[in-house]
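User: C-alpha cells in, sequence out, please.
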C-alpha cells in the first residue's frame, strides 16, 4: 500500500497524470497492496502482476488469494473493500520452465534493458516481470497513450 502511495505522491509532486498501469513482478502480496491502495483511492490505475511462478510451485497464490490479501490489507487500514476476482490481473505466461529458472524471454528482456538503458535486472524474477511488460507492449495491450510504471 505504501509503495502505491509513494508512486502516486511522486506523480502528484511532478504535476503529472497518474499512471494507467503499474507492473509488478509479484506472486501475491506486492500486487495485493498496490491493488488495494489504487481501489481505496478510487484510482483507475490497472495493477498487473507478472508472476515468476505458476501452480506447479507450492508457494503459488491464485488470483482469489490475491483478492483476499487486498481485502485484508484494507481491513488492517480500517476500510471495508470488496475486490471482484476480475480486478486481479496476475499472469503466469512468462514463468518459463519454472520458478527460480531463467527463461529465454526474461534473458532477452534483461539484455534489452541493459543494452538500451544500462539497467540490470535478474533474469529469474524481475526479468520475468519485464518480459511480461514487453510482451504486453508487443501484443498491443499497452500503447503509447499509456503511462506505465514497472
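Assistant: Sequence out:
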Amino acid at each position: 500500500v505504501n509503495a502505491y502511495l509513494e508512486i502516486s505522491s511522486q506523480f502528484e509532486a511532478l504535476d503529472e497524470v497518474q499512471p494507467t498501469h503499474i507492473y509488478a513482478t509479484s506472486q501475491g502480496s506486492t500486487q495485493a497492496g498496490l491493488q488495494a491502495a489504487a481501489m481505496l483511492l478510487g484510482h483507475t490505475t490497472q495493477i498487473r502482476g507478472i508472476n515468476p511462478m505458476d501452480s506447479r510451485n507450492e508457494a503459488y497464490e491464485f488470483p482469489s488469494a490475491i483478492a483476499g490479501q487486498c481485502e485484508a490489507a484494507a481491513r488492517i487500514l480500517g476500510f471495508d473493500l470488496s475486490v471482484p476476482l476480475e480486478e486481479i490481473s496476475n499472469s503466469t505466461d512468462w514463468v518459463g520452465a519454472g520458478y527460480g529458472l531463467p527463461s529465454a524471454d526474461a534473458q532477452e528482456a534483461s539484455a534489452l534493458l541493459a543494452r538500451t538503458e544500462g539497467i540490470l535486472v535478474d533474469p529469474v524474477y524481475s526479468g520475468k516481470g519485464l518480459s511480461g511488460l514487453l510482451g504486453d507492449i508487443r501484443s498491443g495491450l499497452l500503447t503509447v497513450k499509456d503511462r506505465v510504471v514497472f
